[in-house]
Design brief:
The protein has 447 residues and is of the alpha+beta class. Helix content is 18%, strand content 18%.
Length: 447
């Protein structure tokens, strides 16, 4: 996870109309509170230089000037800290919410189309949703009946992502366009799934680095659904806030373990091949080009049992040191794990059933997923134990080769399985990003 420090915001003085704006002090930028020469226009309106970062990719996603609505600021106002100013672009080759770094707050929500609603209503809904997503991700108010929940805040790295479930295609008469890769996931021995909180016709993922910005988007999406679709289930998650650590670090989950060390990286030659559907030469329909498949699992962590283990026992379950994420075979977090290393007694240093050993791509025919989860905590249940765990979300070009391959291996003897329970599940086809003037899913719904 790529963390960001939050500089102290400062209040710039607005120059007189006849004067040239001051340059930022040497070494400062719009990100750390300094003003560039172009920061103040002739009309005296301060325009934020919005720097959107892609977190794990390190890629600048885009910048925007003073936007309409929430983004407009008078010159004398205190500029937003970098955390609030960060913006992700809605239009692009891939949908937002896949390549960006982990966000501090998230919501995942599934909808079922209303009785009588079909392809026409679905197209109108995706058009509304796409328009709302574009505005909110730019830091603007919703076009109609905005709730003002996000007023005063910037985009805060908001992303909104849309996907289609298996049942969507029958409801809209588009069965011939349903990808084979969207076939239902097989049953796994660790599953105790609640069908009411699984699957759905439509899926929306919302993430932001501010809780109110994320909630504002959630409410807007729900209101936009109108009479066309009804909420099937909705879950809330969180991660560490950017800037909470002294330097960028891999995220930790609620078990205290670093989570995501071996995520595939965009710099790897086969990254796109593993994560995104190619534009040609694929078994998938053309409308899925540059898209991906999201597996969503609500995984309950049995924290009371887990926390009774010693640190050494926890490390043996995972196969990595809890303190720094390094493999038990030695080195640092990114050191390649030595699966053959033994101790003085001849025992494997990384246990044969350690989670990190079993999930390695080289132990699963090269299978890999881009994990982008949120933690969750929904209070204490009737037995007095925490209802907490992981909203596991992973991305891959082929879920059978990615998630299913690894999960089947875990089913056969993962040491971690004793301390977790899969309680909800979903698989969704997430099409490529919408081009300027398009809405998400248009090539499917109007093809």
């Amino acid at each position: 996870m790529s963390d960001q420090s939050i500089p102290e915001a400062r209040t710039p003085e607005a120059p007189e109309p006849s004067k040239t704006p001051e340059k930022a002090p040497k070494g400062e930028s719009a990100l750390n509170g300094g003003l560039a020469e172009s920061a103040v226009g002739k009309d005296g309106i301060s325009r934020r230089r919005l720097l959107g970062t892609a977190g794990a990719t390190g890629l600048v996603l885009g910048a925007a000037g003073g936007a309409v609505g929430y983004a407009a600021r008078p010159a004398e106002a205190t500029p937003l800290a970098s955390l609030g100013a960060d913006q992700v672009m809605f239009h692009g080759k891939h949908q937002p919410g896949i390549l960006q770094g982990l966000q501090a707050r998230g919501h995942v929500i599934a909808f079922d189309l209303a009785a009588g609603a079909g392809r026409k209503e679905a197209a109108a809904l995706l058009r509304r949703w796409s328009q709302t997503a574009r505005r909110l991700m730019a830091g603007e108010a919703a076009q109609q009946d905005d709730t003002d929940v996000a007023r005063d805040a910037g985009p805060s790295s908001l992303t909104i992502t849309f996907g289609f479930g298996y049942s969507f295609f029958a409801r809209t008469g588009l069965e011939k366009q349903r990808p084979v890769s969207l076939d239902p996931l097989p049953d796994f021995s660790s599953d105790q799934l609640d069908k009411a909180r699984s699957n759905g016709d439509l899926w929306v993922q919302i993430g932001a680095n501010d809780a109110l910005v994320a909630f504002h988007a959630l409410r807007a999406i729900q209101k936009d659904a109108g009479q066309a679709a009804k909420v099937r289930w909705q879950m809330n998650g969180f991660n560490r806030s950017p800037g909470a650590t002294g330097h960028p670090m891999t995220a930790r989950n609620l078990m205290g373990q670093m989570d995501g060390t071996r995520n595939p990286k965009p710099s790897e030659a086969d990254f796109d091949q593993r994560i995104f559907v190619p534009e040609s030469g694929s078994k998938d329909p053309a409308w899925m080009a540059n898209g991906s498949y999201a597996v969503v699992r609500r995984i309950r962590m049995l924290l009371d049992d887990w926390e009774q283990l010693s640190v050494k026992q926890q490390e043996d379950v995972i196969g990595r040191r809890k303190s720094d994420g390094a493999p038990l075979s030695g080195g640092t977090e990114t050191t390649e794990m030595d699966l053959e290393k033994t101790d003085k007694a001849g025992n494997l240093v990384v246990p044969i059933n350690a989670h990190a050993r079993i999930t390695r791509p080289d132990q699963n025919g090269g299978a890999a997923m881009l994990r982008r989860p949120f933690s969750y905590h929904d209070g204490i249940d009737a037995d007095g134990v925490p209802d907490a765990g992981l909203l596991f979300i992973c991305w891959q070009a082929d879920p059978l080769r990615g998630f299913v391959t690894v999960q089947r291996k875990l089913d056969r003897g993962d040491a971690l399985s004793k301390y977790i329970r899969h309680e909800a599940s979903g698989l969704f086809a997430v099409p490529g990003g919408a081009a300027e003037g398009e809405y998400v899913g248009q090539r499917l719904l109007e093809g």
